[in-house]
Amino acid sequence: MKKSLLKGLAAFAVMAALMVSCTPANGGGSGGSGGSSGTTEVTLEQKSYYYEVSGNNISKNTTWDFSDEITLYYINTVITVKKGAVLNITGNKAEYHPIKICFGPEGRLIVAEGASINAKDASFYSYRQYKFVFDLPDDEPDAAANDWQGMWINGGSATFTNCEIKNSGKNDTSAILIENGGKARIEKCIIEENGGTYAVRYGKTAAPYDAETNSVSNSSFKNNVWGLSIPFNFSLDNTNIYSRNKETLNVENVPITSNVNWDAIIHYNLCDSEDYVIKDGGCLTIKGGSGTWDLNNIEVASATIVIEEGGKLNVDNYIDFTSTAHSKDTDLWGGIRDENTQKFYDSKTGGSFWISFLYWEKKSHEDWETVAIPSTLDE
């Protein structure tokens, strides 16, 4: 009888969550400091329909999965997975049993150096997605962006597979922030309705890109205040889906010293003021679109893109390098300086130019003076 009741209540809660309409809040700023952790080991207290997670540290290998038919865990504190420990969070979406990790407003998960989190078939939500389970009053606001404080991969490692991550961003945090040598493999995930800063941010100090251990692919970014942020030296494939709701990709300034490929067709926002540099031995290859309005936009705030001697910039097909200001004013950003050929490709009037001469022939922009440059700058 108890198991049947719990199954029924869990199913009701899931259906209720699907009917919730969430509206992202405004956000921005830094990725957050991550807070401080205490010294108490994590414990689970079984409630009627969920486990309440208390304490601050996970210092030994731990698994959260199905137990007594309960698949929901509630966190309203900062929890740190400590060096040497692994936290496994495992559901089974094939049988409609994802693990649900619900965070209160003080909830945050930190993965320290030498620690790991492996999440599969898991949902990371605001606790307000399940008002019935937590016996919240009728006038309690629905789950929304900025409800909880996200996950910080602070030198540790993480994998997220078939996961859904929503409602984070409180205190200008990211849903997933990777820093200080940390790495995260994000695959087949839904990342939506997050506020704060970028929903997923690979910071300047994240580990180098690696397709198997430190990358994002086959994932959906939808209705976040801001979606994804990567370093300049981080590759990105074309398997992710981005909504048009401010899903510009932010690019932070880290020199390129090896091969980097940008295959996604999206607006790349180079937001830092310092020069973006491709160093000796580095090569950035940018895939363009197919023409008309299907093209890549490289939007630069004020910096110059510098190709040092021995560096390369390869562009394929239709790409527009322009200012983030979307203005016809001049001198908004520094253009592209190729130190191999001593050529300087300036933006000229309008602050924009098209990489592909063919594209300029096919489409007229009467009010913009346009400068065509070669499809491969190092030739």
Number of helices: 2
What are the low-pLDDT stretches, counting only 5+ consecutive residues below 50?
A: 1-36, 347-379
Write down the overall mean pLDDT.
Answer: 79
Which structural class is indicated by helix and strand composition?
mainly beta
How do the strands line up in the largest sheet? 3-6-9-12-15-18-21-23-25-28-31-34
Q: Give the percentage of residues in beta strands.
A: 25-35%
Main pleated-sheet profile: 12 strands, mixed
Percent helix, as a range, is: under 10%
Query: What is the global morphology?
Result: elongated
Q: Count the beta strands.
A: 34
Round the Cα radius of gyration to an integer and report it: 23 Å
Terminal Cα span: 74 Å
Question: If you had to describe this structure to a student in words, what would you say it looks like?
Answer:
This protein is mostly beta strands and 379 residues long. Helix content is 6%, strand content 35%. The chain has helices at 2-18, 357-362, and strands at residues 43-46, 51-54, 57-58, 62-64, 72-75, 78-81, 86-90, 99-103, 108-112, 116-120, 122-126, 151-154, 157-161, 164-166, 176-179, 183-187, 190-192, 200-202, 215-217, 220-222, 228-231, 241-242, 249-252, 259-262, 267-270, 276-278, 283-287, 296-300, 305-307, 312-316, 319-323, 336-338, 343-345, 352-354. The strands form five sheets. Strands 3-6-9-12-15-18-21-23-25-28-31-34 form a twelve-stranded mixed beta sheet. The radius of gyration is 23 Å and the shape is elongated. It starts with a helix and ends in a 17-residue tail after the last helix. The relative contact order is 0.09.
